[in-house]
Q: What sequence folds into this?
């Protein structure tokens, strides 16, 4: 609930206090965590009927989220031990993310309202998941709060990992820096799209732009790609991409793939490649371009510019995978931007499939989604 929606308060609250919301007729509406520093003043936990917020409530929320991910745990042929266990508001725990990397779990908090409840959260996570280690990560704003003597990267259960944590994604091995890595150590949300690229990559030359730690690159190699070029502006991310490729050298297809990396600005590198090289598959998975409402127009333009830069690098008949993680840009706006970019380069583009969120990133309300991706054949 936004601060401007609150017309009256019984008293001032502290971060994490339980706030009961009534309508104008004094009928119960909802209950949530009070966050006096945020424009979203109350993080709603439950609405409709009255509800006791206690250990049973927390256990139920984590157990429900755990059950939704059962299909991932059930796949023994292609094991996956890295996935999102709790997806914030979409799992009824606003401002809270829980990610799994094998038996190491990472709890990331985006609001100080959760800090007074850490003991209850830790007990429930231990009851439901039995992790070997539970690491706490905090958003930048939350790091400035009263953290009750805890610091970013501290272990709430077990020991703090001193090395990257190894996990599996559809049978492929990756490492995650759960202490200092971006987000919680790995971008888990593109797992299904990475697997789809693997299915398209046999015999292909692949360009992975904004490759970060090489998720798409490794899956392309495992799918039989002849070569993969990983491009990112972060040197440490490319170092991890090379390590992730090394973790899978027992896979004959990965061992046979020629993997190279190039560090620098994506637009600059694509412009240089355009003069000398084309690819069977080009992957463009950039960071968010619309962090606030006022940047939507510029974000749409950026997606079009990316398509304009990428399309000339795709061989006729090849494939483009382009993605957006900008929640404020709709799927229609994104698709229009991509099509416009192709038109300016006078290339035909047939969208053969598109995707949004995987099972571990459920969307349970209209504003809860952000990810969209398309795979298109380029003429």
A:
């Amino acid at each position: 609930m936004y601060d401007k929606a609150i017309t009256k308060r019984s008293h001032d609250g502290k971060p994490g206090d339980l706030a009961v919301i009534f309508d104008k007729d004094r009928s119960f509406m909802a209950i949530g965590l009070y966050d006096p520093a945020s424009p979203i003043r109350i993080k709603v936990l439950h609405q409709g009927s009255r509800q006791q917020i206690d250990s049973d409530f927390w256990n139920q929320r984590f157990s429900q989220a755990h059950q939704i991910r059962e299909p991932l745990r059930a796949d023994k042929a292609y094991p996956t031990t890295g996935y999102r266990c709790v997806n914030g508001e979409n799992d009824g725990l606003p401002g809270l993310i829980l990610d799994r990397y094998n038996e190491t779990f990472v709890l990331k908090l985006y609001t100080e309202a959760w800090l007074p409840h850490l003991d209850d959260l830790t007990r429930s996570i231990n009851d439901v998941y039995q992790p070997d280690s539970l690491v706490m990560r905090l958003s930048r704003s939350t790091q400035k709060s009263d953290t009750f003597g805890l610091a970013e990267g501290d272990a709430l259960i077990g020991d703090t990992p001193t090395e990257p944590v190894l996990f599996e994604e559809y049978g492929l091995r990756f490492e995650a820096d759960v202490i200092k890595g971006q987000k919680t150590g790995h971008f888990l949300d593109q797992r299904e799209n990475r697997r789809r690229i693997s299915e398209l990559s046999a015999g292909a030359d692949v360009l992975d732009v904004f490759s970060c730690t090489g998720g798409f690159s490794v899956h392309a190699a495992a799918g039989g790609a002849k070569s993969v070029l990983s491009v990112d502006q972060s040197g440490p991310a490319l170092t991890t991409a090379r390590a992730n490729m090394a973790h899978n050298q027992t896979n004959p297809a990965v061992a046979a793939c020629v993997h190279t990396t190039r560090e620098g600005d994506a637009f600059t590198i694509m412009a240089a490649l355009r003069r000398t090289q084309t690819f069977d598959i080009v992957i463009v998975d950039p960071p968010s371009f619309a962090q606030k409402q006022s940047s939507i127009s510029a974000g749409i333009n950026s997606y079009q510019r990316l398509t304009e830069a990428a399309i000339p690098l795709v061989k006729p008949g090849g494939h483009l995978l382009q993605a957006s993680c900008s929640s404020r840009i709709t799927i229609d706006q994104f698709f229009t931007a991509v099509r416009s970019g192709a038109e300016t380069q006078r290339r035909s583009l047939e969208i053969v499939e598109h995707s949004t969120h995987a099972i571990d990133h459920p969307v349970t309300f209209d504003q809860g989604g952000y990810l969209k991706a398309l795979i298109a054949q380029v003429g």
Summary: The longest strand covers residues 314-324. The chain has a mean pLDDT of 94.
